[in-house]
Write a structure and sequence with these properties.
It is a single chain. The chain has 227 residues and is α+β, with helices and mostly antiparallel strands. The chain has one domain. It has helices at residues 4-8, 24-27, 171-174, 185-191, 196-203, 206-213, 216-222, and strands spanning 32-40, 44-52, 55-61, 72-81, 90-92, 100-112, 125-132, 136-146, 154-160. The protein has an eight-stranded antiparallel barrel with strand order 1-2-3-4-9-8-7-6. A hairpin with a 3-residue loop joins strand 1 and strand 2 (44-52).
Length: 227
């Protein structure tokens, strides 16, 4: 595990994101950090980050987590992030990698439920418990396939296990605010000199946002071609 890809993608004289200096040794003995960041970038997604081996293993979850065990959410593994990233909330400037607004949507600790005999993390199926402020209980990340293009290392599914924290309520729409600042994306964008109008689209409940997406004028006129 290394931060070289993370550092290569960013210019630290332009982005407020941390370069990363906390070492695995400095953190040893404490519980493992878990964070979910709501990120309004070229499109809205939620970044799940789990501390392991001195870095934050990272997955971009386009539709965010679901508490319903019947719902599988796509999770694209992205580059390892530094541990300091677990406290990052703010605006990544226009033109920089991942430009947009980042909101600390959930924070807490996690525990793997099963490890390999040598103490390493299973490569295909990571069963784990979350002790966050919003996300709790047992979850699983299942590796489905690898994809070479676009820098995404592999494609996973994020699924809630059936337990007392499972539910059909729409937690991403019900609880849009930051767990640290209590801000919405639009307020963070405003305070950080970001794109407030665009961030406010991320503040809409899921249902309203899909209607918004379907408006041709918004699609073509304002943002141009989107991937
Ligand atoms: Mn992201």
């Amino acid at each position: 595990m290394t931060l070289s890809t993370y550092r290569k993608k960013r210019k630290f004289d332009r982005t407020p994101e941390p370069k990363g200096s906390i070492t695995a040794a400095a953190r040893r003995g404490s519980s493992l950090v878990d964070v979910m960041q709501k990120h309004m970038a070229s499109r809205l997604h939620y970044d799940l980050r789990l501390e392991w081996g001195g870095v934050l293993l990272s997955w971009a979850v386009p539709r965010g987590p679901s508490l319903d065990p019947a719902v599988k959410r796509l999770a694209l593994q992205t580059e390892d992030h530094p541990l300091e990233y677990a406290d990052f909330e703010g605006v990544i400037p226009a033109g920089e990698y991942g430009s947009g607004t980042v909101l600390l949507w959930d924070q807490g600790t996690w525990q793997p439920e099963k490890l390999n005999a040598d103490g390493s993390l299973p490569e295909r199926e990571i069963k784990f418990r979350l002790h966050g402020k919003k996300l709790r209980g047992s979850w699983v990340l299942v590796h489905t396939r690898s994809m070479r293009a676009n820098g995404h290392r592999s494609i996973w599914l994020l699924i809630k296990h059936r337990d007392q924290y499972a539910s059909t309520r729409d937690i991403t729409s019900d609880e849009p605010r930051s767990v640290t600042s209590r801000c919405l994306l639009s307020q963070i964008a405003h305070d950080g000199g970001g794109d407030v109008e665009r961030a406010s689209i991320g503040d809409l409940p899921d249902t309203a946002r899909s209607k918004n997406r379907a408006t041709p004028a918004q699609e073509i006129g304002k943002r141009g071609k989107r991937r």
